[in-house]
Design brief:
Blueprint: H1 4-15, H2 17-24, H3 29-43, H4 46-49, H5 53-63, H6 65-74, H7 80-89, E1 96-103, E2 108-109, E3 115-122, E4 127-128, E5 133-135, E6 143-144, E7 149-150, E8 155-157, E9 161-162, E10 167-168, E11 173-174, E12 183-184, E13 196-198, E14 204-206
Parallel strand pairs: 1-3, 2-4, 3-5, 3-6, 4-7, 5-8, 6-9, 7-10, 8-11, 10-12
Antiparallel strand pairs: 13-14
Helix pairs in contact: 1-5, 3-5, 5-6
């Protein structure tokens, strides 16, 4: 008897077939094929690894709006009418924005809630988590190298470069270049020590 996942994937194969056809007929077909495999590896589910390529695509496109957002970026060279119909049927993540002159293959967006990515370019095999802001200040917007990872809640702004292999930790704010291979992190949480005062009876209280 088919499992629930098998039934969902079978349904996804039917629903996503027009999107699959649009992708395979576009100039981005090879890039998307690579990204399907990369997303499956990043997710790390052995059951998904055993699926055939189209079943993998169908699962990702049906289950993950972040993946659909990336697909719509890849299809930006398709005819306007095709893109309009595909966006209406296969809706992207409502609070994920991908805006760059170039995004290298293999971008993985994990939990893309409230994530805005506006960069000059993004290298290959990058990983971006939720609630990330990559964007402009008055000087411009960032360039992201290859194999860069940006953690949840991070802010990367300005005309800076995050070089290959760098990691931006959760909630870090980055306004200067990050050298290749370097990890930058936010300050650790620390206790809040409130000033104390005493009342007429000598009892301590916080103000």
């Amino acid at each position: 008897m088919p499992t629930d996942r098998a039934l969902r994937i079978a349904a996804a194969r039917l629903w996503t077939y027009p999107l699959w056809r649009a992708v395979t007929r576009s100039a981005a077909g090879e890039i998307v094929a690579y990204e399907v495999d990369r997303w499956i590896e990043c997710i790390g589910d052995d059951g998904l690894r055993r699926l055939q390529p189209y079943a993998r695509f169908a699962y990702l496109a049906a289950a993950l709006p972040e993946f659909r957002t990336l697909l719509h970026y890849r299809l930006r060279g398709s005819p306007s009418a095709v893109r309009l119909v595909l966006r209406a049927v296969y809706r992207p993540a409502p609070s994920l924005l991908l805006d760059a002159k170039f995004i290298g293959q293999g971008l993985f967006v994990q939990h893309g809630l409230a994530t805005v990515v506006s960069a000059e370019q993004i290298g290959r095999d990058c990983w971006i988590n939720q609630q990330v802001t990559v964007g402009y200040d008055r000087r411009g917007r960032p360039t992201i190298g290859d194999h860069v990872r940006i953690g949840a809640g991070a802010v990367v702004v300005g005309n800076i470069t995050v070089h290959d292999g760098a990691t931006v930790g959760a909630n870090a704010t980055v306004v200067h270049d990050v050298p290749a291979g370097q990890t930058v992190v936010a300050p650790l949480a620390r206790p809040l020590i409130l000033p104390t005062s005493t009342d007429d009876q000598g009892r301590a209280s916080t103000s």
